[in-house]
Write a structure and sequence with these properties.
With 208 residues, the chain is mostly helical. 52% of the residues lie in helices and 5% in strands.
Length: 208
């Protein structure tokens, strides 16, 4: 299968559709405040304030003039409605990765992290997950999706309407004619000949 081939993209689209259907029962399980920065590394930058525990001083980029108040790592690094579909499943994935970070971080502190392949893989996963959970990545995704969706929808309704029809037939099949809808009556070739033409034809066929 060549890179960029239509078969490759159809396979990728089928996998995405399958994953959406798999998560559809969880669509209503929505988490409002979703972390875009893991609590584990946040704790490494926090300071203990007596009985209040570890605290950070978050800076709100949307409201830079707002008074800054200390907050726990659990309260920091959150974005409301970051993922809008089945967000609880993403939080679960995030939580599974967070359980692996402390051991990898300890290996970093000891200086022997590259001697443990599982810790190296954890750090790679942490970097990748923070990348796709970043605000910049989300903005790029939304811009690209909106642009491609608009262009593709216009194309399927105009120049590529045959592709849309083919896709519908592949998914739904040929629609059956309702039982209450009679088939149109077939007209015979003789009935389609105009009356005047038929009279003229009969007149010319008579012997003189």
């Amino acid at each position: 299968m060549n890179e960029g081939s239509s078969a490759q993209w159809r396979l990728a689209a089928a996998q995405i559709d399958a994953r959406i259907e798999e998560l559809r029962p969880e669509a209503d399980r929505h988490v409002v405040g979703q972390h875009v920065i893991s609590q584990v590394p946040l704790k490494r930058f926090a300071t203990r304030f007596g009985s209040d525990g570890l605290k950070l001083l978050p800076f709100n980029l949307d409201h830079p003039n707002r008074v800054h108040k200390r907050a726990s790592p659990r309260e920091c690094g959150k974005v409301k409605h970051f993922a809008r579909f089945a967000s609880a499943s993403l939080e679960q994935l995030w939580g599974k990765l967070e359980t692996r970070i402390p051991d990898a971080a300890a290996a970093v502190d000891r200086g022997d992290v590259f001697q443990h392949e599982q810790h190296v893989q954890t750090l790679k996963d942490v970097i990748a997950l923070h990348l796709v959970r970043s605000l910049n990545y989300r903005d790029v995704h939304e811009r690209i999706f909106t642009k491609i969706y608009t262009e593709q929808r216009k194309a399927l309704l105009t120049d590529q309407s045959d592709l849309l029809r083919l896709a519908v037939l592949q998914q739904r099949g040929v629609p059956r004619r309702p039982a209450s809808c009679p088939r149109p009556a077939r007209t015979s070739p003789r009935a389609s000949v105009p009356k005047r033409a038929s009279h003229r034809a009969s007149a010319t066929s008579e012997p003189r």
